[in-house]
Amino acid sequence: MEQVINSPQMNEEEKNKIKDKIREELEKIRNYTPKVGVFGDSGVGKSSLCNALFGSQIAKISHTSGCTREAQEILVGSEEKGGIKLIDVPGVGENPERHQEYLELYESLTEKLDLVLWAIKSIDRNNMASIDAFKKIIAPSKLPVVFVVTQADLMNPHREWDIKNNKPGDTQQAHLNEKVIEVSKIFGIPADKIVVVSASDNYNLTELVSTVVKVLPNEKKFAFTREAKDENVSEDAQIAAEKGIWDHVKEKIGNAVDFIMDDVVDIVVESAKKYVPKIVKSVFRFFF
C-alpha cells in the first residue's frame, strides 16, 4: 500500500478507498506466513525447542534444495490461516569438509527468511564453525536474529536445577549468565538478543517469544505470536504485536489517519476482536 498524501478536503470516495486498503493490509498481516531459519549444530536441541515453542502440530512439508545437504522446511499450523514455516538447516559443525557448502546454503536462504533463531547448547564450548558462518553470512544480511542458549538444565551443576520453581539453581544461573556474556562477545551481538531456555522444562519460553517480538518488523510480529503456544505468549507480547500492526498501518497511510481516525480505530479494533479478543481493551490504549 503506497503512502497516501491527502488534505482536509478528502471526499467519501477517497476515504472509502483508504479504509479498504487498511482492511487489505490488516488481512495480509493477520494471514502472513513467516519463514524462520533454525540454525545450530546437531545435538543442540533444535527439534525440542521448536516443539516446545509451537506444540506438536509440526509436519515436514518439503526440502529446500541447497548444496549437497538440504534444508528441511517444516510447516507449523495451517497455511490457510497463516501458519509459520521453520527452515531447519544442517549445522556447519556437523561436517568440516562441507563447511563451504553449508555457507553457500546459508547464503541462499537469507533472502527468504524473516527471522533467524540460532541455537547454542549451554554446555558446548566449540563454536568456531558457527562463529565463522554467522559473521560471514548472517550478520551481514541484517536479518533479525535471536540467539537461544538451549538445555539450561544441563548447565553445571545440573543437579542443582530448582524443580519446585522450575528454574536454574543459583550456581547454574551464574554460569548461564557467564554463557550469555561469552556468546555476546564471540558472536558480536547484544546480550538482550540472547535468551536462555530449557525446552524440556518449558523454562523461559515466554521470554524467548517476547524477545522475538521485539526484533521483528512491526508487520511480522503478530504472525509469530499467533503460531506460538498460548502459554508461551505473554499478554505484553500480544499487546506489542498488536501495537506493531497499528504502527505499521499508520506508517502506510501517512497523514490520512488524522482525517479518518474514528474509522481507522473501528477497523483495527474489529480486527483485534476477531483475532485477539482477550486483549481488545488494551488495544484501545494505542489510540488514546
Descriptive account of the structure:
The structure is a single chain. Mean pLDDT is 87; it is low at 1-7. It contains 10 helices and 7 strands. The chain is globular. It is an alpha/beta fold and 288 residues long. It folds into 2 domains: 12-29 and 240-286; 34-233, Rossmann fold (3-Layer(aba) Sandwich), CATH 3.40.50.300. Helix content is 44%, strand content 14%. A hairpin with a 7-residue loop joins strand 3 and strand 4. Helix 1 (12-30) packs parallel to helix 9 and helix 6 (205-215) runs antiparallel to helix 7 (221-227). It has a 7-stranded mixed beta sheet with strand order 2-3-4-1-5-6-7, with helices on both faces. It has helices at residues 12-30, 46-54, 99-110, 128-141, 170-187, 205-215, 221-227, 235-253, 261-275, 280-283, and strands at residues 35-39, 58-64, 71-76, 84-88, 115-121, 145-150, 194-196. InterPro entries: GTP-bd, P-loop_NTPase, Small_GTP-bd. This is G domain-containing protein. Keywords: Cytoplasm.
Characterize the largest beta sheet: strand count, sense, and whether it forms a barrel: 7 strands, mixed
Which assembly state applies to the chains in this document? single chain
| Number of β-strand runs | 7
Whole-Å distance between the termini?
25 Å
CATH superfamily of the largest domain: P-loop containing nucleotide triphosphate hydrolases
Strand content: 5-15%
How much is the radius of gyration in Å? 21 Å
- Strand order, largest beta sheet: 2-3-4-1-5-6-7
Number of helices: 10
Any idea what the CATH architecture of the largest domain is?
3-Layer(aba) Sandwich
The helical percent reads 40-55%
Low-confidence stretches: 1-7
Shape: globular
Q: What is the succession of H and E elements?
A: HEHEEEHEHEHEHHHHH
